From TrEMBL:
SMART domains: AAA. SUPFAM superfamilies: P-loop containing nucleoside triphosphate hydrolases. Gene3D superfamilies: P-loop containing nucleotide triphosphate hydrolases. It comes from Plesiocystis pacifica SIR-1. This is ABC transporter, ATP-binding protein. Residues 227-263 are annotated as: Disordered. Keywords: ATP-binding, Nucleotide-binding, Transport. Belongs to the ABC transporter superfamily. Macrolide exporter (TC 3.A.1.122) family. Residues 248-263 have a biased composition (Low complexity). Residues 2-245 form the ABC transporter domain.
Amino acid sequence: MIRLRGVRKSYTTGKVVNEVLRGVDVDIGEGEFVAIVGRSGSGKTTLLNILGALDSEYEGSVEVDGRQLDSLDDVGISDYRNRNIGFIFQSFYLMEHMSCLENVALPAVFARGSESMTREAALARGREVMEQVELADKCDALPNTLSGGQKQRVAIARALFNRPRLMICDEPTGNLDASTAHAILDLFRALNEDQGITLIIVTHDDMISKACKRVVRIHDGKVVEGAGEFATRERPELDPTEDGGDDTPAPTEAAAPSQEAQP
Ligand SMILES: Nc1ncnc2c1ncn2[C@@H]1O[C@H](COP(=O)(O)OP(=O)(O)OP(=O)(O)O)[C@@H](O)[C@H]1O
Ligand SMILES: [Mg+2]
């Protein structure tokens, strides 16, 4: 489904080049349930943004279903995002002045062509996904009257609205207590097992990563564990230390990032 080869990304501030991803190779297949772990600053969010086509400023190859993401034009990219991917973030990004149901039906506003819906159809689909996350009774509530776990379930319902094949989650339980996080994990598991949705979850939470079927670990700008069946580039030996530290590389005074030949 997704195949990354030699993905490099650096941020340049003034003369300082921060090489965040330094040749990432990873494969993610249809229906997988994958955790991405690594220290703070190791480039997990950067990687998700590239996977989700939120960021197109990178080197290397990102292939989705056999197509290079960078070969798609703007319309192709927004279709890829809207039709295939549900995004879930640590902060739930709900619109406070809209009801939960309206929040969930928001993706309908961005639907184009054959996928455009009447308001009625959008709200009906919204109710359906609110039921899936067991919040049917909160459709009319405003988000700020909900608990953190409930807000995250509304955000998950919104991500489910367009029937995504892939859900990309950036620390989805980062703001939740352990038992609420557990409920969200159960929901993810059900989405993966019952609906076959592929889940990619960046997390610092051991409970989540242990429940995932594969853990992809990023260190020093590369994938050092769990790259997947076909991503077989040599990887450095690494003491699999747990998260908690800061992996932000010391910024180096350097010229433009080197252009290595990719395999
Ligand atoms: N827009 C940006 N401009 C400049 N530097 C950035 C930008 N976004 C991220 N960085 C830098 O890139 C590095 C990786 O950031 P990223 O957000 O991907 O880390 P992360 O692994 O998601 O960390 P965390 O676990 O803390 O969320 C960090 O050193 C960060 O300072
Ligand atoms: Mg992050």
